[in-house]
Amino acid sequence: MTALIIGGDNLGNIPGKLSKKGYDTIEHIDGRKGWDRRAGIPHRVEKADLVIVFVDYLSHSIARSTKEKLRSLNANAIYTKRSWAHLENQFKKIEIS
Known about the structure:
The chain is α/β, with parallel strands linked by helices. It has helices spanning 14-20, 34-38, 41-47, 60-73, 84-96, and strands at 2-6, 25-29, 50-54, 77-80.
């Protein structure tokens, strides 16, 4: 499975923990620079099984355009803070639903 992470300058141990959950391909876009919006976010979103958006480390314009793209594609997305505890909590909510 493929995960696309948008936001967060430093991911720490998050990619390793996502690998343990079965995500073998993990791409990361830091989302701070205007170039990131034009650098293939829409194309990468289409290819990802899950998009994780770290809302506390993301520019407003990139957050807005990413959210619009995710809605139009009806993509699986998690919006969370850049913390494994918050991310894992969102995974639990998805698994229950």
